[in-house]
Design brief:
The complex is a heterodimer. Chain A is of the alpha/beta class. Chain A folds into two domains: 238 residues, 4-Layer Sandwich (Purple Acid Phosphatase, chain A, domain 2); 129 residues, no CATH class. Chain A is 35% helix and 23% strand. In chain A, the strands form three sheets. In chain A, strands 4-3-2-1-11-12 form a six-stranded mixed β-sheet. In chain A, helix 4 links the parallel strand 7 and strand 8. In chain A, helix 8 runs antiparallel to helix 9. Chain B is flat and about 195 Å long. In chain B, helix 7 runs antiparallel to helix 16, helix 8 packs across helix 14 and helix 17 packs across helix 18. By secondary structure, chain B is α+β, with helices and mostly antiparallel strands. In chain B, a hairpin with a 2-residue loop joins strand 6 and strand 7. Chain B is built from 19 helices and 20 strands. Chain B has a six-stranded antiparallel β-sheet, with helices on one face. Chain B has a five-stranded parallel β-sheet with strand order 8-18-19-3-20, sandwiched between helices. A four-stranded antiparallel β-sheet of chain B has the order 11-10-13-14, with no helix packed on it. In chain B, 25% of the residues are buried. Classes of the chains: A alpha/beta, B alpha+beta. The interface between A and B is large, with 46 and 53 residues.
Chain lengths: 373, 879
């Protein structure tokens, strides 16, 4: 039996350039920190090998800082790191992997050739490194022909899709789901899919150890696998990630909906380490909308690590009160009803009018406040 | 409010006090020329009401008459709400204010405050007042300069009007809140786009440039990445190429090929050597054969030369013999022709001699005939000369025309005197009868007429004696004159040697005729002596006579005339015959000459042929001495066989050499060597290229170009998203701004409805079918006609001014309804109005006068003469 840590899709050096600097540097640091975490986990769990199933780096040429940081963190761990090129950091002559090999400490091994390597006695690793960003070939095809000593544990390491996961581009590097059985593998450790996903008793995606984008409701994790010759491996999912990347849609029709949604978020999650992609939908009064956006913008946004708020879907139905808040009668009231009727017409113009109405509301209240004061 | 009296002193041009009293209710008109101080009066009114007595502003100082240090003073009687008030104000020097009204007397600041409340205006600022703070009167007291401007009312009036309007229309304007919101929105919009052109500015412009910069940076990063990746690809390609080349260089197949080629080359070289030897032997045999053939040919040639020379000689001899006969014939023919020519020549000479002799005879005959002709001419000449002599005598008559004229005069004189004498004479006709004697003065009388001029005695026989005495009237003088004339006449006749006047005339004419004839005769004489060249005789009678004197008469020598024509023809024939003979002789001579030449040539030919024969025979003899002919033939036979063998050998050697193309083998070897060298060179070049690319890759790789490119892409996307957000914000703000403006204008229209309606009554009179359009600040924006808006600035000045007055009137009406103190003062208004409009406007002002006090200051007395109003005279107002 051999105990390994199966991880993938570190995507070190991902830029996160659309975020403000402070968020950006936190996210970048977290990706490097996760290497330390995995190293610590390996020591804790006495796993002698960490298998990284592709996409160690976010791109084929990360800068020297990223490379050095990653390797020096790995060198501090007592485990052996097996790094395999994926589609983001595919192998090519004189490219990234030549640099890695030059700088790598002794406990870091580069798997840029499709050749079986011995992990330890009677335990062999069959890697399927990628040489191109996109290939329609099945990279695991050669597993069957890779011979290993009789009775040895065979662990496959590959990067690609088992099925079409419904991404925007057609699936590449498609791997047959029963590849483990076909190639006589005791475990097929897969990378590429960023969420944890077990395909069958011998095949699993470990997901990324630190989530790097919205679409996953859990923090990153790795798989702790005990593999034995012949029998299915014992797989254990272990959390490694710091940040939650939540995506939520709040359907709002009144103040109560909002309050409960907010409460739900606050109760269940670790807000300072949460990035929230929030989409508001439904229809509310103008006053409610303003109040909600105000609450989200001035309170929740600061509680969260990052709030990505999309509120275009939250329509307003200005009530008489709303209009009255702007003004009971007179010019402002007239302007408000002009905009309200344009907003009712819908379409781009309507959406613009709706936004204008909202702004008018805000400014009218502000002017009122100033007048009162 | 009604002004009643105004008193001004030490105020600008009014140094002396001026007092205007009895200002009427309704319309007042102050008509004064320019510079009379109308505008100063308005200024003084303003100063009294709106400027605090303690003010020392520049404006206030300007109230002082020029160069004086006095206190400008204004006094005012007025009514407000039916209560009478008296205001006295002095500025600068001993500044003071006194306000006396129904509720008592006020002084100093209390008076100012009371005045303010009473008339509803603000405390002015230090520099004086402005229309904004003057309240209703600020709007309604219109000074000259601002008459044209269609200004919005100040805020005091606005508020006043606003509360009036609110009561009337029940609407509420946004007021301050609206202004505030609008200002905020304008400000927010201006932070993104310029208000005027909508060009991005501030944050939006920044976002735009950030997006553009991000795009540019992304392109640069991608370019760098691409170039790095190209380096990687190039490196891989170079390595592959290098591997291929090295494999080629080490290929054992190539080495084997090279070895085989070397062997082939050796074989080919020896075959080549053998071929060269065979070629040499072949050439040697060929030369031998050729020499023997030449020797044999020399024999044959010499023999045939002898034969040919003999044939030629025989032919030459035959030709010579044949030609000799021809030659002799030619000699004979030439002799015959020569004899014939000599005969013909003699015949021609004879004919020539006969013709010459005949010509001599003909010439002698001709001469003789000419002399005879000359003689005949001479007799005619002599006759002519005689005639000429006669005529010349006649022509030479001494009588001249003048003589004849004198004679004629004398003759006429005779006749005249006779007539005079005959007038006193008695004419007696005498007829003689046979047998009777009749005497006159003793002389026998003749029959006929007798003139008796003196006592004459006629005796008829004896029968009678008659003495007739003519009357005494005829004196002796007549008789004497007649006698004298007669005597002169006869003397002249004697002088001229003529019998009478008639004879003289006849002789004169005969001389003239003779002269004419003489000319003709002399011409005849010249024609008679034309001369004769054959005789060498010159023209003229003298030459002729001289020639004939030498000639002797030999008429008898004449010979018979020879036939010259026949002789001449005979000569021509003889000539022709001679020429014919000459031609024939020349031809024969030529033939002879040719025959002779040919004879010489044939002789020479024969001699040459003889020599050739001898030479050919000598050559043949020489050859026979040199070689044995039959031995030569045997040698030729043997050499022929040897040559055939050598040809065979050469053929074999050629085939052997042809099988191995030495050049091709050498070329192949060279090509292989070249390919090897080139491959080595390429390999070296690739090594260098690989090293350079490796260096590039090693230096570029650590830069993390792909990471940078990915980052710049995300930055660009985020910048673009930000730009979209801000653009949308700007669009939202633009919409909001426009909507606010729209709502504001709509509200102003609704709100100012009452003002518009009031004004409409007036406006209808000058611009039928038009509505006034007010802005939200109650300022007049323009007019709306047939649904089109026209801004104030687009209207004529006259219309602008009229509208300004009318809107003021409308506001005044509204204020009047509010019971505000209203008084309308117009300083020099309606300057630009035409007559029709002016009339309408004055009508309206007259109407307004029924509701409020209106004071009109003008310099145009004529323009307002028709207006029924109270008139105020400044000049009469001085106190």
């Amino acid at each position: 039996m051999i105990r390994i840590l199966h991880t993938a899709d570190w995507q070190l050096g991902k830029p996160f350039a659309r975020f403000p600097d402070e968020v950006r540097s936190a996210l970048s640091e977290a990706r490097l920190d996760v290497v330390d975490k995995i190293g610590a986990l390996a020591r804790e769990q006495e796993a002698g090998h960490v298998l990284v199933a592709g996409d160690v780096f976010d791109n084929v040429d990360p800068g020297d800082r990223i490379l050095t940081q990653a390797l020096s963190r790995m060198s501090r761990a007592s485990t052996t790191w097996w790094l395999m090129p994926g589609n983001h950091d595919h192998a090519r002559a004189d490219g990234l992997w030549s640099r890695v090999r030059r700088q790598a400490p002794p406990n870091v091994r580069v798997l840029d050739r499709a050749e079986a390597v011995e992990l330890e006695e009677q335990a062999w690793l069959l890697p399927a490194p990628l040489e191109h960003r996109r290939t329609r070939d099945d990279p695991t095809e050669s597993f069957a022909s890779m011979s290993t000593p009789l009775g040895a544990i065979r662990i496959g390491l590959a990067h690609g899709s088992i099925t079409d996961f419904g991404g925007s581009s057609p699936a590449t590097n498609v791997i047959p789901p029963d590849r483990a059985r076909q190639a006589g593998l005791d475990y097929l450790a897969l990378g590429d899919w960023h969420a944890h996903l077990q395909i069958n008793d011998r095949t699993a995606y470990c997901g990324t150890p630190e989530v790097d984008g919205f679409g996953s409701e859990e923090p990153g994790s790795v798989i702790l696998a005990d593999c034995a010759a012949g029998g299915p491996p014992s797989l254990q999912r272990v959390r490694s990630g710091t940040y939650w990347w939540l995506t939520q849609i709040w359907e709002l029709h009144g103040r109560d909906d909002f309050t409960s949604a907010l409460q739900g978020l606050r109760v269940s999650d670790d807000l300072p380490r949460t990035l929230l992609d929030l989409r508001l939908e439904g229809t509310v009064s103008l006053a409610d909308r303003i109040a909600m956006l105000d609450e989200l913008g001035t309170v929740l946004a600061h509680e969260l690590r990052w709030l990505d708020l999309r509120h275009e879907g939250l329509a307003i139905r200005p009530t008489e009160d709303d209009i009255a808040e702007i003004d009971v009668q007179g010019t402002l009231a007239n302007a408000a009803s002009l905009l309200a009727s344009k907003a009712d017409a819908g379409g781009d113009e309507g959406s613009l009018a709706s936004a204008a109405l909202e702004r008018l509301y805000v400014e009218a209240l502000r002017a009122q406040r100033e007048a009162d004061a | 409010m009604k002004l009643r009296a105004l008193e001004v002193a030490n105020f600008r041009k009014f140094r002396k006090p001026l007092e205007i009293t009895g200002i009427a209710e309704g319309l007042n008109i102050v008509v004064e020329p320019n510079e009379a101080g109308k505008s100063t009066l308005l200024e003084a009114l303003r100063a009294a009401l709106f400027i605090r007595h303690s003010a020392k502003s520049e404006l206030v100082r300007s109230f002082c008459p020029f160069g004086d240090e006095v206190g400008p003073r204004v006094g005012l009687d007025f009514e407000v709400d039916g209560e009478a008030w008296r205001l006295d104000k002095q500025f600068l020097k001993a500044a003071s204010i006194t306000l006396v009204g129904p509720s008592g007397r006020f002084e100093s600041d209390a008076a100012e405050d009371r005045l303010q409340t009473l008339l509803g205006f603000d405390k002015g600022n230090n520099r004086g007042t402005d229309p904004e703070s003057r309240g209703a009167l600020g709007l309604l007291w219109v000074e000259q300069a601002s008459a044209l401007a269609v200004e919005p009312p100040g805020h005091l009036v606005r508020n006043n009007i606003r509360s009036a309007l609110e009561a009337e229309v029940g609407a509420v304007l946004g007021g301050r809140r609206f202004e505030l919101v609008r200002a905020r929105i304008d400000e927010a919009y201006a932070a993104l786009r310029t208000a005027r052109t909508g060009k991005p500015t501030g944050r939006l412009a920044e976002a735009e440039s950030r997006a553009a910069e991000a795009g540019a940076r992304r392109e640069v990063a991608e370019d760098q990445l691409r170039s790095y990746e190209q380096s990687l690809a190039a490196l891989e390609q170079a390595r592959t190429q290098k591997r291929l080349i090295e494999r080629e260089l080490e290929d054992p197949e190539m080495a084997e090929q090279r070895r085989k080629l070397a062997e082939d080359l050796k074989l080919a070289e020896s075959a080549q050597l053998r071929l060269t030897a065979a070629q040499a032997r072949h050439a040697e045999g060929e030369a031998q054969l050729k020499a023997l053939d030449q020797a044999l040919a020399a024999f044959e040639h010499a023999e045939s030369a002898v034969h040919e020379a003999l044939a030629v000689r025989d032919k030459a001899n035959a030709a010579l013999a044949a030609h000799r006969q021809d030659h002799e014939m030619a000699v004979e023919a030439e002799t015959t022709r020569r004899t014939a020519l000599a005969e013909r020549r003699q015949a021609r000479r004879d004919a020539q001699g006969a013709l010459d002799a005949a010509r001599t005879i003909a010439e002698g005959n001709a001469r003789r005939q000419a002399v005879a002709r000359a003689r005949a001419q001479l007799s005619q000449v002599k006759a002519a000369e005689q005639a000429i002599a006669v005529k010349r005598d006649l022509a030479n008559s001494s009588l001249t025309a003048k003589d004849v004229e004198q004679l004629a005069a004398l003759d006429r004189k005779v006749t005249e005197t006779q007539t005079l004498r005959d007038a006193g004479a008695v004419s007696i006709e005498v007829e003689l009868t046979e047998g009777q004697t009749f005497t006159i003065d003793g002389e026998p009388a003749t029959a006929g007429r007798h003139d008796v001029l003196q006592a004459t005695t006629f005796a008829i026989g004896k029968a009678a004696r008659l003495t007739i005495t003519p009357p005494a009237v005829v004196g002796r003088s007549a008789v004497d004159a007649h006698d004298a004339a007669l005597e002169a006449y006869h003397d002249k006749l004697a002088e001229l040697e003529v019998e009478s006047y008639a004879a003289a005339v006849k002789r004169l004419n005969a001389a003239q005729n003779a002269r004419d004839e003489l000319v003709v005769l002399e011409r005849q004489l010249a024609a008679l002596c034309p001369g004769d060249i054959t005789l060498d005789l010159a023209p003229g009678a003298a030459a002729l006579k001289l020639f004939l004197e030498d000639q002797t008469a030999d008429a008898d020598d004449a010979e018979a005339e020879p036939d010259l024509a026949a002789l001449s023809k005979a000569l021509d024939l003889a000539n022709e015959a001679e020429q014919h003979a000459i031609g024939q002789h020349e031809s024969a001579q030529q033939t002879h000459h040719q025959a002779e030449t040919r004879l010489v040539q044939l002789g020479a030919d024969t001699a040459t042929a003889e020599r050739d024969v001898a030479s050919a025979q000598a050559q043949l003899t020489a050859l026979e001495g040199e070689h044995d002919r039959s031995a030569l033939a045997a040698q030729r036979q043997a050499a022929g066989e040897d040559y055939a063998r050598r040809v065979d050998a050469l053929d074999q050697a050629e085939r052997a050499a042809g099988a191995l193309d030495i050049e091709r083998i050498r070329r192949s070897i060279a090509h292989q060597d070249q390919a090897q060298t080139r491959a080595q060179e390429e390999r070296l070049a690739l090594v260098a290229k690989i090293a350079s690319l490796e260096a590039t890759v090693a230096s570029e790789g650590p830069k993390g170009l792909a990471g940078i490119a990915a980052e710049t892409r995300e930055v660009e996307e985020s910048a673009a998203a930000q730009l979209v957000r801000l653009t949308r914000e700007a669009d939202v703000l633009a919409l909001l701004r426009d909507t606010l403006r729209e709502a504001g204008d709509a509200a102003a229209r609704t709100f100012l409805g009452p003002v518009t309606r009031r004004a409409a009554r007036y406006v209808e009179r000058i611009l039928p079918g038009s509505d006034l359009v007010f802005a939200e600040d109650m300022g007049l924006v323009g007019v709306r006609r047939d649904g089109f808006d026209e801004g104030c600035g687009d209207l004529s000045r006259g219309t602008q001014e009229q509208l300004a007055v009318l809107t003021r009137l409308a506001f005044a009406d509204l204020l009047l309804d509010r019971k505000a103190p209203v008084s309308l003062i117009l300083d020099d208004p309606l300057v630009y109005s035409d007559d029709a409009r002016l009339e309408v406007m004055t009508d309206l002002l007259e109407e307004a006068g029924t509701r409020m006090q209106v004071i009109l200051l003008t310099c145009r007395s004529k323009a307002f003469r028709h207006v029924a109003a109270h008139r105020i005279d400044l000049a009469g107002a001085s106190a």
